[in-house]
Amino acid sequence: MNIMLFHSTYGLRPAVRAAADRLRAAGHEVWTPDLFDGRTFETVEEGLAFKDELGKDELLKRAILAAAPYSGRGLVYAGFSLGAATAQTLALGDEKARGLLLLHGTSDIAENASVDELPVQLHVAEPDPFETDDWLSAWYLQMGRTGADVEVYRYAGAGHLYTDPDLDDYDAEAAEATWRTALGFLDSL
């Protein structure tokens, strides 16, 4: 699979590169665009402040420009938290998208979004301060209405960005379960 993997609000950190290496070791071609021009952040608040300064439109423009050279190949869009939201937006707008792998995040769904049985897999903490139960229920129903084929995996007690070993949120057991399931998902596409 050709995978476009977007970083979280922390920026393109070692955990994103390690995830890309893990995916490459499983036989996938992976791109990890740096939407923050080399900036990384120690806290969510710092990252969100930079994202707000950059602006949603500029962030999306950067993501589209990063994916454009490869989208004709049929990409799987993937991302961590903010990167998952970005991946979702691009996947729902790309008729050649092969799949959507969301780690720790989702996004609003345009009313006119429509896909043809796009395989979608979401991995998220339970509870998650950024992905509440009510939000996830509504998101799941909306994704189904777009035509997506959605699977959701919840990890009780894990922190929001539980796959990043450099953060306090890290949960080794949940991270390994996520990667095992995600790799199976990618192999099925």
From TrEMBL:
Q: Which UniProt keywords are given for this protein, alphabetically ordered?
A: Hydrolase
Listed GO MF terms:
hydrolase activity
**Residue ranges occupied by any Dienelactone hydrolase domain in the UniProt entry:** 3-187
Could you name the domain of life of the organism this protein comes from?
Bacteria
Gene3D superfamilies attached to this UniProt entry: alpha/beta hydrolase
Entry keyword annotation includes Hydrolase: yes
InterPro entries, alphabetically? AB_hydrolase_fold, Dienelactn_hydro, Dienelactone_hydrolase-like
Classification via SUPFAM superfamilies? alpha/beta-Hydrolases
Q: Which residues form a coiled coil?
A: none
Kindly give the Pfam families that the UniProt entry links to this protein.
Answer: DLH
Protein name per UniProt: Dienelactone hydrolase
Its ancestry begins with: Bacteria, Bacillati, Actinomycetota, Actinomycetes, Kitasatosporales
